[in-house]
Amino acid sequence: MKIAFDIQLFLKGEKTGIAWCADNIITQLIKEQKHKYQLNCFTLKVEENTLNGLKKYETKGVVMKKCKWFHDVVYKLLCVFIPVPYSWFFGKKADVTQFFNFIIPPGVRGKKVTIIHDMAYKALPETVRLKTRVWLNLMVRKSCRRADKIITVSEFSKSEIIKYIKVPEEKIVVMPNGVNDSIYHINYSGKEIETAKQKYEINGNYILYLGTLEPRKNIIRLISAYSKLITINPNAPNLVLAGRKGWMYEEIFRKVQQENIEDRVKFIGYVAPDDSPKLLNGADIFLFPSIYEGFGMPILEAMACGTPVISSNLSSLPEVAGDAAILVNPYCSDEICNAMHNLLADNIFRQKLILAGNERVKQFTWENSIRILYSVYEKLMEA
To answer: What are the angstrom distances between the C-alpha of 103 and each of 112, 188, 334?
Structure first.
């Protein structure tokens, strides 16, 4: 079987959630070397340094198909008005072509599979950038019609796709994400953790949020909750907010100023992939009070690093966290505050939660995910 992957999302700068999921899937499939693989991308005006990042995929049985004469943004815009065939740029058909970021363009030969991670642009449009909202509204429904199968990452997201796009249930397959246990684990040394802390100028104990700084992540209420916590417990660890600036991030910085807690809250920006597990290992608590998630990878990554988790009780997060996290109403800052206070005060409960997290994360492996994906491909070829 020849499987093609559209890897354009790898050329958009620093990898975030969806790109890391795609990376893990492709890496796992290539490692098993069961089939032939082709990686498709437009590379016009892409920096050489970015292209060098693709070399790790260039192994036996993998063909890198680069379109050097056309720009991906121009292609995306053209596709809104003219169904320019994808095959013009990437040649002979693959048996299956896999897309990772919602959209399937026109004119893809062979079987077509896409991954739709969530329906935030429909369910909570006010939390999504206008241009993203417009693009997804234009293209997702068409992509679902073009798809032979749609992969999604949770039962919650499956129900959302059915609700908003009216896709037949039998067309959707749930493939939960996995945790890369070669990166996210508890075996980092104290020196490695301390070195990572020093790199981001983190002193002492800390409570950690790690993710994009944007409205959907509910960081404003997180800051309100933390402000209440240090009123109750002035000796509570400082709060570290890690992640790149997303849409409407300015309000988050203003909130810290309004609460007059600049000396207790530290913004450290984008965290390099190698440093993320070390900072998770070093944290006293990991906070993830997001209002809406298709899956919620950071919860499992924190659990894998032996860090107790406080999570929102909405969307897919209870499905992912199970009984291994404190689940709170993300709209209630008092509830978030109380969860932090209780976790800091009760070490027995803290250790119980850490152990539960270690067990929970074992259910989510990329090997399991790939078995589901292979099954999808094989059934499509038999059809």
So the answer is: 11, 38, 40
Tell me: the pLDDT tens digits for 230-259? Answer: 999 999 999 999 999 988 899 999 999 999
CATH number of the domain that residue 230 is part of:
3.40.50.2000
**Which tokens go with 149?**
């199968």
Spell 240-265 as b/e; 16+ CB within 10 A means b: bbbbeebbebeebbebbeebebeebb
- The rounded Cα 293 to chain-centroid distance in angstroms is 9
**Contact at 8 Å (CB) between 3 and 29?**
yes
Residue 294, both tokens: 């298709």
CA distance 234 to 341: 11
Domain membership of residue 138 as a residue range? 2-178+365-382
What's the pTM value of the predicted model, to 2 decimals? Answer: 0.93
Q: Using CA atoms, how far apart are residues 11 and 50, in angstroms rounded to an integer?
A: 6
CB within 8 A of 347, min separation 6: which ones? Answer: none
Q: Could you tell me if 155 and 24 lie in one domain?
A: yes
Average pLDDT over the chain reads 94
Q: Which long-range contacts (CB under 8 A, 24 or more apart) does 352-356 make?
A: 353/308, 353/309, 353/324, 353/325, 353/326, 354/306, 354/307, 354/308, 356/322, 356/323, 356/324
In 3D space, the residue among 150, 157, 191 whose CA is nearest the CA of residue 173 turns out to be 150
Instruction: Write out the E strands in 43-99.
Output: 62-67, 96-99
- Per-residue pLDDT tens for 32-46? 778 899 999 999 988
Most confident of 17-26, 92-101, 354-363: 354-363
